[in-house]
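Task 17 of the worksheet. Students: predict the tertiary structure of the chain below and write it out as structure tokens. Keep your answer in the requested format; marks are given for formatting as well as content.
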Amino acid sequence: MTIKHNISALIVSSLLLAGCGAQDAIDATKDMPGKMDATLGQITKTNQEMEKTTDAIHKQTLLLGLEEMLKPENTKYLVPPTGMLAGGEAFAQEATAEEIVKLAYVWLKEVQKGIPDDLSQLDEKGLMALIHEKLVKLTALQVITGLAPQKTIEQLVQDQILNGGRYEDTAYAVLMTRALFIKSFLLDESLMSPAEKLNNLGKLEEAFDRTSQLDYLVRLPFAKKIGLKVKVTEIELEVDESLEGLGENRGLSFPLTYWQRIQQALDKELEEQYLTSPTARQRKEQLKQKVSPYLKAWHLL
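Model answer:
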């Protein structure tokens, strides 16, 4: 009986202890709302500080990109604009669609309207410097828009053209400068030049990316409105470009030539020495699958 009594006592004691613990837990919950509010407040503060830091980094990246691109030593030669590529790409990869179209708006206004009051007093050297300054802005705009991610351009189209944004007119000019840069610098003077062979996967993948970006532009329902017009009578500077005119006698079907070249390269130019690994063969098949819908759309398959 003594053992039984001791066990019962232990059970009662444990229950009492548990009861005390439960009460302590109940009492503790009374303080939870205040503690939760403090925790949530700290989280909110931390998030706000992180957002400020992220925004500061974003703005610094944009500023450094512009500064690098527009350094005198990088803008001395504009054809081709190789000195402007590093800074331009840094800006283009970081900028939002809104930031790009607003920059384009400001720069195009400066090119059109930025004429000094003492223009008549400029000598030939001063006049050439003024013209060069304006050409730098037009070239820089091509570099930025040409190197911007495709998703950024699609967002710009959605916001400014399809949704009737404030900068719709500027958006058409942005798309034109993008087309000029991709076609002239990245394709005609590089990957698709007569001297270049599309004989490895890296070149072919790059050619696909750039050609598909042009293909996107010519298939837009408003493609015939894409263009860039600049006329500064005072210094006889005039630019008149259209997407349709870019293709010359081919009109808006000019990407067809690039797709034909890519198709030929996949079938004949790609050297087998680059396809010895399973990874390379897999990349080739993936590329063929990505190219196929475009070839069908242009009736090449």
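Marker's comment: The chain has one domain: 75-297. The CA atoms of residues 66 and 87 lie 6 Å apart.
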